[in-house]
Structures
1.
Amino acid sequence: MSTTLTSVDTIDAGQLRQLQHEDPELRILDVRTGGEFESAHIPGSYNVPLNTLAEHARDLANVDHPVVLVCQSGARATEAHGKLASEGKTTLQILEGGMASWEATGGDVEKGETERWAMDRQVRLAAGTLVLAGMAASTVVPNAKWFAGAIGGGLTFSAVSNTCAMGTVLAKLPYNRTEECDIQQVLTDLNK
């Protein structure tokens, strides 16, 4: 029996668990980095990091099955939703609150051998460190305070635009990468 996703763009963890049991056609697409996915993910989900998804949005939008998008908190899944919806994908939902919500409500999780920090936590560490360094440097070089201000401005822009340049850069670090996503295999599996 195939369940049709509602017209609402988000579903909560309880609704996703129910759909998993009711609809064998449902596909879960995790758009976090390979490192985050490897650390912990929803069983049966497929990993297509956001940058890879952007390159293959048209192909992914042509998947016949209903898709639920997952990231850590919902921001990257929302961006992925926009890309897939603009390519015509209609049976598409976002897991409200992402993996954080899924785990908090007791959802099943497959854990890898390596624990990696979620991207938002990595961004907070990098931004905080850069601000502290800028402030410390300003005791010797007074204009260094503007460096800290620029980081604050970038964080403000990130919040307003719901994008994150620092997260994009951090996602490219070896720590966050695993083997490259085999998009052709994922597309084959998604269309089974």
Note: Strands lie at 10-11, 27-30, 40-41, 46-47, 67-70, 92-95, 110-111.
2.
Amino acid sequence: MRASEHAYEVLRSDIVDWALAPGTVLAEVEQSSRLGISRTPVREALARLVADGLVEPQGGRGLVVSAVSGSIVVELFELREALERQAAALAAARREVSQFLQLQDEFREVSRLVVDEDPTRHAYYDLVARFDAAIDASVGNPYLVSALAGVRTHLARIRRLSHDKPQRLLDAAREHLLIVDAIVEGDAQLASDATHVHLHRSLQSILGFLEAADNKRPISAENRG
């Protein structure tokens, strides 16, 4: 793997996993030292992350991890709704049943992943990634898959805002199972509707988390009046 690709993967993973929180300054010198590579591949990786929208320039501070706000989340979900409902419907019409039967079994047993002692929930998120991959493989539309990939770059980070709560993870898994059941049955309308329910509940959960976080945030001196 090229050094720039390695730097991109590590930095992207750290941003998605919240090891690098919004507003974190990403200085080339610091990151090249941390990753054990020269500044040039780090610069290339940062440029890709800027293109992804995960990193943004901030006057006087250089590059920082991009912010997450309620308005950004809503905008992403507006796009996600259109893309994922269509993808689920197409997957139900064009699917290879065997791979979704396997996902059915795994989502039915998902509680063991949620109660796992691993706080990162990597096993759970790996299952969700395989669910997404199975739908992508079924839709037979590279343009739709490409558009979904761009949205998921941001959603992978945003979903951690609320989905690390065990109860929300269990609820989300049940919602995913309903989508898989509809795809197995070949019911495109039901797959689309089940996706709508999942996205609505996910959005409400994330917005609730952001509102609670804002309420806990201390009032700065300039905002005290």
Note: The first strand starts at residue 55 and ends at 58.
